[in-house]
Amino acid sequence: MTRTSDEDVLVVEGLECHFGATHALRGVDLTVRAGEVVALLGENGAGKSTLIKILAGVVRPTAGSIRLGSDVFPHGLTTAEARARGLAFVHQDLGLLDRLSVAENIAHVAGFCSSRGLISWRRQRSLAHELLREWEIDIDPAMPVARLQAAQRSLVAIARALATSARMIVFDEPTAALPRHEVELLYEAVDRLRAAGVAVLYVTHRLREVTRLADRAAVLRDGQLVGTVSVAESSEHELVELIVGGALHAREVAAPVRSDDELLSLSGLGGHGADGVTLSLCRGEILALVGLIGAGHRSVGRIVAGIDRAVYGEMWLNGKPFDPRSPREAQQRGVVHVPSDRLNEASFPPLETASNLSLKGRFEVALASSRQERALASRVLAEWDVTPADPGATFASLSGGNQQKVVLAKWMTPPPALLVAEEPTAGIDVGTRSAIYERLAHAAREGTSVLLLSSDADEVAAVADRAIVFGDGRPKVELAHADLTPARIARECYSA
Amino acid sequence: MKAYGLLARWGLLIVFLIVFGAFSAWIPNRFPTSGNVQDILTSQPPGIFIAYAAMLVLVVGEFDLSIGATLGISQYLILKLITHYGLSWEVAIIATLACGAAIGLVNAIAVVGLGINSFIATIGVATILEGLVQWISDGNSPIFGGAPHGLTTLAQTKVAGIVLPVYYALAAAIILWLLLEFTVAGRQMRGTGANQVAARLSGIRTGRARVFAFTFAGVLAAIGGILITARIGAADATSGPSFLLPAYAAAFLGATAIRPGFFNVWGTLIAIFLVAVGITGLQLKGVESWVTPVFNGSVLLFAVALSNVATTQRVLERARTVIERRRPGMANRS
């Protein structure tokens, strides 16, 4: 299994990729050697996803070449070519067939053992058993994947990749969905891969993982490779600077005057990923709860909005006890929530924008008369500058930015007492972003309190009055208005 | 695009007119006669009501496969209540409607309360009902006669040459249309069907919307059963299930018109008559009886294919947005 190290398994040169007007990758060079773990870092939208999609054969590069071992692919590769050259992927959602056994999952990728034209389950299981033993993975091959721990499932995904004699494995945020106490299992597996001479490209947001696992770190920013550094010779601080960029100015906006009357207060709140959260939010204040995915800040928002029920702890709204059992109850107390999953949770894609604006527990128009509803919708769409401003247009036909405006407009007309906004500008173009920031700031001036749940340091720096950085389900650091620079926020997030 | 939209909206009505015109030209002496038109109208109301039931449950994003059995048990139950238990026909109607509502409520409890997939839950309920109807009918023996005059006049009286049930069906259409398009409850039902998660997060009581749809569907199916008994004055315990699939065919076909891409009342009504006209025409032309189900099935396939075309634009748009959200490299999976 061991290969000579220093052998270049993957060499990417001058990779360019355009999507319409977007220049997603600008001349990226990257080398990954056998027996080496390279961490790929960068903010959302920096180009990591595009690079991985190109390696997986899902997206074709506009220019540049990819070399796998001794084969050069000048125009990108196909999925089949990637696999045939020993390039395997372990995605965050592992792509396992949950109800099938470990052995069967391996077989679906590595091929079935047949005996006289039929599948030989006995040989299949012993093959899986050997594979798992070779990689010191202690899992019964007959076990259905759904019954395994989260980390064990990742190991199955790795084993499956190795069954095809992968020479390089690309991990795409493999620990984002793992409980903290299970990640070590995965780290050990990566260590074994390195020892066996497999090349590893490891995409992550967590700097601790980089220092624990990686030999080198490659950092992307705005589609460019801004640096490849040896992890042993760089500090976390230097990595953050590379990720968020050097030009970090202090905030220009003056600290807003805000009233001191408290709207919401949480005391020792926990459950669903949040753990003992105590905080307080004033009327007209924009408080950002910041963290990487899985840090627990979103759970706080979902509990406050009545989507999930607190397991312990207490909440007060306007000085009165607050324990909503459903989003409906929360809305009756003036608390609304805008989920980040626009198409699955926040909207009715097949329906018209008018319906998307009016479908709530309580309608703004008494009887849903289409004329009144459309008039209201037209006014809101115009006010929010949605194009097309046609209440009859299907929601799904709008662009992402316009969809997001509709979703926010729905919950901000009339102004709620408390708006819980989950990643309100994720995947949105810059113009719409600033329009949405403007809207949030305006609503806050009018007295709406905003709980902004974000993993985007720029966003938090742009709109929040105050931020609390989350890690492991708990508030870790509170940043006052003066400290809200993207660099500071990012640094706190990555080390939380 | 505009013309395409209009065509999608009125296409089914145009097809209906073409089919009607074609048979009129083909069988001029027997098809376009008032007698034939009356025959078609007279036989449709039970099918219309059960199609409404199918449509209403589809609107909230569920299936109710027990409506055929509900219609079957209702048409038997009403006559049994009158002939065996001596209930007056008015009370028997109310009891039968209540029974329909109760069946709908059982479906709702299974689906909303217990979280069973509606397809499976309602097949279970339908199977139970088929057993129960055998029980109350002493092994499927039909009841001949015994329907009181009051009951039969409900179905057989003609106003302007058309039997009353046609008016009931129209009245029900208007009520359902107003409900679904112009009341908050109806719009919330649509929202529930369009995206149940988003509906719940929006503060819509999705459970209540679905309970209402199932219960109302049970009542509509019971009305269908009562109308059959009232029309023929007799009850046959075994006829219920044959109404089920044509009802779904009509609901799906109806979703291709008027509000293309959405289950809607008027489309469903047009679809019923399109199928009825087609079958009547073929029968007048003397085709054998096996042609009827073949025609029904073909229309259903054709309808859904057509509806796919009508919503392709929307679907493509949606697919594009979904693909953009996908994690990288998903297509890499075998």
What does this structure look like?
The complex is a heterodimer of chains A (496) and B (334). In chain A, strand 16 (312-317) and strand 17 (320-321) form a beta hairpin. With 496 residues, chain A is an alpha/beta fold. Helices cover 33% and strands 26% of the residues of chain A. In chain A, the strands form five sheets. In chain A, strands 6-9-10-3-11-12 form a six-stranded mixed sheet, with helices on both faces. Chain A folds into two domains: 8-244, P-loop containing nucleotide triphosphate hydrolases (Rossmann fold, 3-Layer(aba) Sandwich), CATH 3.40.50; 262-495, 3-Layer(aba) Sandwich (Rossmann fold). Chain B is mostly helical. Chain B is 74% helix and 1% strand. Chain B has helices spanning 2-26, 34-43, 45-59, 67-83, 89-113, 118-136, 149-156, 164-182, 184-194, 196-201, 206-232, 244-254, 265-284, 291-325; strands spanning 158-159, 162-163. Residues 317-334 of chain B have low confidence and may be disordered. Chains A and B meet through helix 1, helix 2, helix 10 and helix 11 of A and helix 9, helix 10 and helix 14 of B.
Counted up, domains of chain A total 2
The strands making up the biggest β-sheet of chain B line up spatially as 1-2
Q: Which protein chains make the most extensive interface, counting residues with beta carbons within 8 Å of the other chain's beta carbons?
A: A-B, 56 and 39 residues
- Radius of gyration of chain A using CA atoms only: 25 Å
